[in-house]
Fold each of these.
Amino acid sequence: MIELDGLCRNFHVGNQVVHALDKIDLQISAGEYLSIMGPSGSGKSTLLNILGLLDTPTSGSYSLDGINTSEMNDDQLATTRQHKIGFVFQSFHLVSRMNAFENVELPMVLAGQSVTERRKKGQLALEQVGLSDRISHRPDQLSGGERQRVAIARAIVMQPVLLLADEPTGNLDSASGKEVIEIMEDLNKRGLTLLLVTHDPVIGQRAARCLTMEDGRIAKDSVG
Amino acid sequence: MKFADCNRIAFGALSRYPLRTSMMLLATAIGVAAVLVLSSLGEAARRFVTGEFQSLGTHLIIVIPGKSETTGSGIGIMIGETPRDLTLDDARALMRSSAVEKIAPVIVGSAAVSLGGLERDVTVFGTTAAFREIRQWKMMLGEFLPNVGMERAAPVCAIGALISEEFFGREPPIGKWLRVGDNRCRVVGVLAPQGTSVMINTDEAVMVPIVSAQAMFDSPGLFRIIIQATSRDSMPKAQQDVRRIITKRHYGEEDVTVITQDAVLNTFDGIFGALTAALAGIASISLIVAGVLIMNVMLVAVSQRTREVGLLKALGAKKRQIIALFITEAIFLAVMGAVVGVAGGYIAVTVMTGVYPNLDFTPPIWSVAGAVLVAVASGVFFGILPARRAADLDPIAALSGQ
């Protein structure tokens, strides 16, 4: 489903060129469960951003679902993000003035879906993360674990093919972190491709396929 | 994104910061209210002045002796400055025009009026009965001057309400004698009090027959001839006839100035219309200022909500959706500000009407519509820059709050 071919991402820092990603080749099939680990600065977040179409590679190609993303314009990238990719962030990124349901329905609002459709899908998504009883709570009325579960519900409400999680447990205690991981693993079992960036080896080892990154390269791939 | 959702999100964002939102509302509201109040002041002045000139009577032509001319030096100046008098015969001759309905020759002077030990200076008008008919003055007691020929002198006078009070108190003045200058006149009528109307305060005036006034001031020259045309349509003909007759009588020299009420009205109308527009224009500047304020605060809002913008982008928001969200916020601010401003402006106008009940402060509809339009337009215009800035944010940097 995902094919990276000679993917490079360079940043200019002053006069120096930093190779955040250096000729990455990677294939990921639909339904896989991957974790990416590595020291900070190894390029794992950059890789995640490129996979999430928030960043574009300097060279090389990235095809998602058989479509080469380098030929897409801004709007097409946005639409692809909307329909195929779900994000879960370390700091949740919930809109504080909106309640759980409103946060979850935000992607559907942007996609222009009808109110009845939004209600049905939003409730279903919140049910999947076990928050049916928290629908009208605002983020500041929820615990950290609950907030991240709202964020997961928001990420899956558009039924994406790929779920990208960037340190999803980084701001959580271990109990609620485990809960969050289990919810995502459960979604993976139902066919959602899951890609997890983490520092925590305990969480990283749970994945069926572990990538270790170093200096912008994949140093170790437990499968390949 | 649906229109209703866009509005809901924008409104939600605004209500999150009530103080900031209400301050921006206030800025726009003050601008709109200022336009309303200033233009209503200008309009009130225009209505007042044109109303004054309308109260002069209907379809009037005023003939003034002399004509301002730009002449050469030396002898020319002397010729330019010494007009031929306008005489009673001239006035009589004007009656020959079929377009002329009524004629009132007027002489104005100042004379001492006395009765017993009381004496004061008053403005004395020498005129005929037609003057009252043209000016549509009402009488409180008795009659105006006797309706006899222009050339008949008579020892009578009509007096203003205040003069009557000062000299006669509560006693009936009709039939009493007053000394006006060197002449003794019998009071035949008292004008109803009406205050100052177009520079003439009839309450403090004494009216005598024109010939009496000529004798009193020892001058055959008339101050004005007031002419009422038969109808509005006959005004041009009447004006032409007046010029032709006077020129003929004055040996081919058109040495009078003929002005029409309409011309005066139009001039004042124009002047005050321009004044109102200028006032409204000046007030509109405050709307631009409000717009700049909206831009500033929106820029702050964008940087405060950087993370939110980053999130929206990650969730698949297109550039134009983000632009739409922020511009909607700016429009909301401007529209709500305009509504508050219109309400405030009307309240201010109501208060002004309460203080000056005889002035009509109704703001002109163009200024209301214009103010609202400019407010909304400046909201949109000054909302563009912050909205574009938000839309152009890099999603990764925005998500990390940079």
Note: The radius of gyration of chain B is 34 Å.
Amino acid sequence: MLRFALSRLLLVVPTFVGITLIAFLFIRILPGDPVLLMAGERGVSPERHAELMAQFGFDKPMWRQYVDYIGQLLQGNFGHSFSTKRPVLEEFMARFPATLELALCAIVLATVLGVAAGILAAVKRGSWIDQATMGTALVGYSMPIFWWALLLIILFSTSLGWTPVSGRIALTHYFPSVTGFMLVDSLLSGRPGAFASAVHHLVLPTIVLATIPLAVIARQTRSAMLEVLGEVYMMTARSKGLSPSRVIGLHALRNALIPVVTTIGLQVSVLMGGAILTETIFSWPGIGKWMIDSISRRDYQVVQGGLLLIAAMVMLVNLTVDLLYGLVNPRVRHV
Amino acid sequence: MALLEIRNLTVSFETAAGRFHAVQGLDLAVDSGEVLAVVGESGSGKSVAMLAVMGLLPDTATVSADAMLFHGRDLMSLSPRQRRRLAGRDMAMIFQEPIASLNPCFTVGFQIEETLKRHTGLDAAGRRRRAVELLDAVGIPEPAQRLSSFPHQMSGGQCQRVMIAIATACTPKLLIADEPTTALDVTIQKQILDLLLRLQLEHGMALVLITHDMGVVAETADRVVVQYRGRKMEDADVLSLFENPQNPYTRALLSALPENAVGGRLPTVAAAGGWETRP
Amino acid sequence: MTVQTPDPTLDPVPGAGPAAQPVPPLLENWHYFTRSRGAVVGLGVFMALVAIAVLAPWIAPHDPAMQYRDALLVPPAWTAGGREAFLFGTDAVGRDILSRMMHGARFSLLIGLVVVTIALASGIIVGLVAGYVGGRTDALIMRLMDIILAFPSLLLALVLVAILGPGLFNAMLAIALVLQPHFARLTRGAVLAEKSREYVTAASVAGAGHLRLMFFTILPNCLGPLIVQATLSFSSAILDAAALGFLGMGAQPPTPEWGTMLAEAREFISSAWWVVTMPGLAILATVLSINLIGDGLRDTLDPKLKRS
């Protein structure tokens, strides 16, 4: 198992190097002078220009700049935001928990409901339940999720008034942030109604963000289950006189989950894209909104640093999923 | 009284092209301690009949019979729960593809002990001991280590031995073997068959051996049932069948055996004639 | 495939059924495709959308850019306050939503077509080269594809558009680049599988050059999964372009692209639901029909997944 883990890790390294290269090239590809781009509309005097060029190393040869860039990364220096002047890494870490909390809730919801729906559809293949769940799943990933979010807001927030429209918690609750996770912090603060408010604010964004992964996971689970149900070892399990719930829930599901684990991993990347849209609509202070705001503000250091950090994070998650796959599929471990 | 008695069994499936009868009006009986061979070509319904006895057919199958008695009890009148209690404990089955018959995600030990957990009152340590005993009884070397192996780490022959261990774990009265050696090497085939017969004698089990290999039938069976297209063609003891087959299909089957060739050609081919003109 | 019902009269030798006529492959595929009701419905809806898109300038009730000062935020015709002239109502500056939606169809279908063409063409070439040449070239190309795939697709598209500048064409280019690795990977995988097959060796021995081998011998046998992926990418492209439009980075107002329309509609969530709902429904209908077709194609073309 250890060898498997190491081999997976080694595969990741060149890709990671490639990512840093792309991020590095990003600012340098932009049309125009890099210092002027960072300075924005105000422009900059010739002396200041030369100063900045030297400071950022734009006058050095490309490969030298890249080496310096890697050096800075290793020291945790991902650049500075032009609008807030604070380090990119710091801004990232401040906003990351919000996205992480939302993403975790979404993926948990998507997995639990998706796997359940997929099993149900597979076991009742061809029935109306099967067609209804798969039809719903199809609609789920055919929708633009920003429109879905707006629809849900119209229905639940505006018409029915059940859910809030934006933010992570009602403004009336204010308490210091300990973990960055609103669910945890609100509980820790001990203030009445804070936790409920946090949950209340999470409901719609989670549903929106979970929709596509849920649909994809449901479909994948169904097809994986159908394949498994036709295998010989299923007959063996039944011939032992085991109960149907054990046969399906343990023998079948355990095998069906193998491709589903891979799917869940792939959905993380989709979640990031979805987070950008969801956070924009719900004014959720996470890294998705941060990126889109920075792009419109032309805060290129943030865009560059954020791109790198997000890609690195996605790669980390994929690596974890790869290792999880090795745990879940014994056949891969012993090669 | 026979251990297993089937009268007028009919199994049909609902397919896209209409209703398909896999088994029609089958009568069959097996006594305790007897080895019954069920032979026929692919599609003769030999597996389907036995799957119906075990209760392993999918919901799309319709099973009807005048009687399907196991140890005097009518299987058709039992609830699904009652039938599940019989399966694995009093009647067991092994299948054609050994490696595919075992769940790839669980160890061999887990899969054996699962049966024991379901049907016996043994505690964890007791189950473990029994599992080692069983693996030893089926001829697996280093049985204690083998408990933590996965099916893909073992050969086809070893997997079939494990399947036999699982099937015989609770000393069933009836063991159904559906083409147990077809997917194995010839050398391993004999070993597995010998193992089956040895266990059959030791435990006094009834063994139903489904096969299309007449050679295996000749060596192992007490009685033979010949099936074709879902119907029983002949039912006789093994010696009578080979020496004096009554049914034309049985005769055709036997004359297709290479052993029965005369003068370098099969009887049916030679009878067709016209070979002399070919170079 | 004929299923024989057992002959009650005993017959030692199974009688053969009447010999089946060989069916031309295209017709056979169509037959399989039409067995799925969803796929047929999807195809029908899609054809209707294409017709609307093509005929929009003639069949749209109004000019999509025409602003009726006296008809601002008019609700749909079937609701209270609606007007017959504007079936789906009007937007904040008095433009007919139905007409804008019809013209929007032209943009969306164009986007899908352009993006898929670019991604497919470049992906196939890249994949063919990687799979055929092998060795270091293969490793390098696949590493590049992995890097592109390491970034979340929407994010990468956004950053690319940030570099190139907002606009419909740049958005299409960015999306095509992001989708291309899927085609490259598929092609490469198929090429690797087919490369060592006998028919390729036979063609090579017969004197076929590399280019000919790649494009005319191997490629036609890899088409199945590529076609399925193409339909998937078509719908992804429409969704991504709408997302970019919604974020202000795609088609710019006053272009009646559906995503851009939704961006303008955002402030009217509480006051004018139809401005928000209608363009999104158009996107949903289009993408859904394409996905239905894609499902049908997958069942038809991928033999492993053929349903019994």
Note: The domain at 99-247+281-307 of chain C is CATH 1.10.3720.10 (MetI-like fold).
Amino acid sequence: MPEATFLDATELVINMGPQHPSTHGVLRVILKLDGEKVNGTECVIGYLHRGVEKIGENRTYQQFAPYVDRMDYVAAVSNGLGYCLAVEKLLNVEAPPRAQAVRVILTELNRIASHLLWLGTHALDIGAITPVFYCLREREEVLKIFENYCGARLTTHAFRIGGLLYETYDGFEEEVRKFCDWFIPKVDEYEELLTNNRIWVGRLKGVGILSADECKEYGVTGPVLRAAGVQWDLRKAQPYSGYEQYEFDIPTGENGDTYDRYTVRMEEMRQSTRIVRQAVERIPTGPIMGKVPKVVKPPVGEAYVSIEAPKGELGYFIVSDNSTQPYRLRVRPPSFVNLQALDCMVRGGLVADVVAIIGTLDIVLGEVDR
Amino acid sequence: MADEQKPEGPVAPKPAAAKPAAAAHAAPPKPPAVMVTTPWESDIVQLLKDHFGDDITEFSTYLGQNFLVAKPDAAIAILDTLKLELDFDYLVDITAVDYPKRAKRFDLVYILYSFARNERIRVKTMIPDGYMPATAVTVHLAANWLEREVFDMFGIQFAGHPDMRRILLPEEWQGYPLRKEYGILQQDDAWVRENLGIESGQ
């Protein structure tokens, strides 16, 4: 071996985060670098750990519902839907059709809001500053609908076990329809800005490839899995809350790179709008609350219920001992499981791409750490 | 398993025993104290029975969800067979449930999904405190962080795990929060004092 000279580079270990604008929260990534090349990473998480599962064991079923909004606070409505469905499964009740339709509308609007925040921040990370202003402008309209419906914009607690607490407000359908008509041209506008933009394509194509087999091996779900070419969406595979009534497509990618994940999410926003349009045209009349006792005491047993959250499969595993509090409440968070694949995606790539890949995974640290 | 499920408190009478009593109409029937499961029958069950025989003690369905209970030593072989021969190629989750009064204190739960079959099953094992189950990383890479979280929260060490450290809590933290004896307000006060410079986090 030749003698080492001062030009020989040794492995450099640097810390990215936990306070870093492009880690989307308090994620700390320890990067092992060989010049510009990433040799390996280690994620340090838990800075936002609040012990949500422990809290769940010490609250009644209804009391715990608002806590789930604080995990993935960008998609609080989805979290609430998953939790309500899980408890309803244990109680063996179903929300009435009217409640289900309103749930679908709000959940899909929330998916749009979540994807918009992802798009804005992802583009910002990569250096395109304009989209974030546009995206937040459109997201604002969704949040206004939430606010009009239940009074809260972010941590909505929109649903209750067994159905809904609130009837829709006057002009709800009109407002949702107006939003859909107004929103689709906006998606086209983002695509005009980004899809064929040379810098955008250059930064995303071929970056952070995760193949379908790797996705399955790591348990990665959601748009990341679909971008790898697997046409799998829980709304189609195991429909819940009446999703089987609506027509929509599952967009997929081919290469499983960052660019495909971008196109998949863009198309998902259009498909969500399509679902909302169908749902709002046929909201059934009738009650909004199922037959749920005032004191929720599910029979002894356990159930795992999962939904397609904007980030992937969000599951709740609840063990009941026939008391008013869950004996054990486990949340299967999509962000936590997806983040595990980060190392596989950045290894061998450039340090500048790490930021793009964290952005494309679309994680929310509130959900990773719980 | 039936009696082990709820060790605390007097065991409530089973509905079958309560029914013949004369007062059956006077009081509403008490809910059963155990999980009312039905047997699970499918080709999966048959294949697994052929493969593992007595190592799997129960095949059940509850609320339409299928699960099996296996001896802890056989769990990894079962996951492997399920993955290679029955297409259960997606490990959804690993978690544990603590029953402090039971001799085999923990339920270890593996949730699996098959894309090809569009089917979800749970593999459960019961393990005593201090038992080191084999890691599932050899079968599913996703098990890495999931097992670290189980260790972090319950103190269950996985044998052969490549990186058996805490994941959400600080590495020096004492105690396992999701064990039942760990109070809701309890903290590692020494750690909080030393690292945060405050008397208590509460």
Note: The longest helix of chain A spans residues 97-126.
Amino acid sequence: MAARIQIPPRAKRGEIVEIRVLIQHSMETGYRHDDVGRVIKRNVINLFSCRYNGVEVFRADLSSGISANPYLQFYTVAEASGDLEFSWIDDEGQQDSERQSIVVNG
Amino acid sequence: MKRGPARRVLATALAAIGLAASMGLAQERSIPLGELKSGSVFLGEDLRALQNDQFANPGTLWVERGEKLWREVSGKNARSCASCHQDASMRGVAASYPRIDKASGKLLNLESRINQCRTERMGAEPLRYESEELLALTAYVARQSRGVPIAVSIEGAARAHFDAGRASYHKRRGQMNMSCAHCHEANWGKRLLSETISQGHPNAYPAYRMEWQTMGSLERRLRACLSGIRAEMLPYGSPDYLDLELFLAWRAQGLPIETPGVRR
């Protein structure tokens, strides 16, 4: 599961920072049928979470209504330098994660 | 307005010049340069913004994958694309395709050019049409021409392909008995149910289509049009598509490449 994640590399303490995430995933809805009429099993990223220095700051429960290759955008307050860890898992149990650092001044 | 003899002479002279110019330029444009509109003009504000967003444009996922594949060694000769095209930028390359391959004299689009490189120079298997890998590589190469106006050659060996493509474009087909021109030439800008008909230009492909929820090639888009008018869909890589692709590129000359485009 390829993903693109964008956070500002540095921020001032107390600043609201924008976090953008784009994950490559087919987000199979479970409502489609294949060429011979069998239901294609639902397989969506059902959980996405973001931890900032170990503390969860954002969580999303996704389901069938979300488009393929979901794009998420959210905000958090820059409190201390450290890592933002992003993790997600789909219905088939495939999981992935990514880590990015932020430097907080002031 | 009254037309005096002098005016008539002038008109005849202008017509003669126009004829000479069109013979010299081989062919007049079907849509004048000033009226050429990319498909993005017919999109909603949100999709246009998504296409222009360098981060959120979902096509960038394929471009990034293509960049990795570009450096990936494959085949008997243990080469990658980057082994030959070391630091060479591919900027402008996509804008000149489809073009005649000098060695074989065949007309190639970007996809078949990539596969020709793979089989003849890398000793690797060709990538399947519409496979994620081929879409990624094509998107990566075409992305480097973003902003470069399309400029294809229809001279020499390309001429016969161009003529065939133009004939194909104007040929009525399918249960609806329609040609490409019926929508994209005669009725662009008007509504077809909830959608605005575009001029049908190829400058954003491979593109991410909302309907597909994924990336797709120009040929996939052509197949979608054929299916829409209930005509026979030709197999991927068919020479008939190539001729049509050349005609479409010529028809869109001057429009900048937008790959990876976002479309409805």
Note: Residues 22 and 71 of chain A are 4 Å apart (CA to CA).
